Amino acid sequence: MKRLIMALVCAAMMMPMESKTLVAYFSATGTTKAAAAKLAKEHNAQLWEIEPSEPYTAADLDWRDEQSRSSKEMNDAEARPSIKQCTDVTPYDTLYVGFPIWWGICPRIINTWLENNLDQLAGKTLIPFATSGSSGIGEAEVYLKKTYPSLKWQKGLLLNKR
Ligand SMILES: Cc1cc2nc3c(=O)[nH]c(=O)nc-3n(C[C@H](O)[C@H](O)[C@H](O)COP(=O)(O)O)c2cc1C
Question: Ligand 1: distance of its center to the CA of 88 in Å?
Answer without folding.
Answer: 27
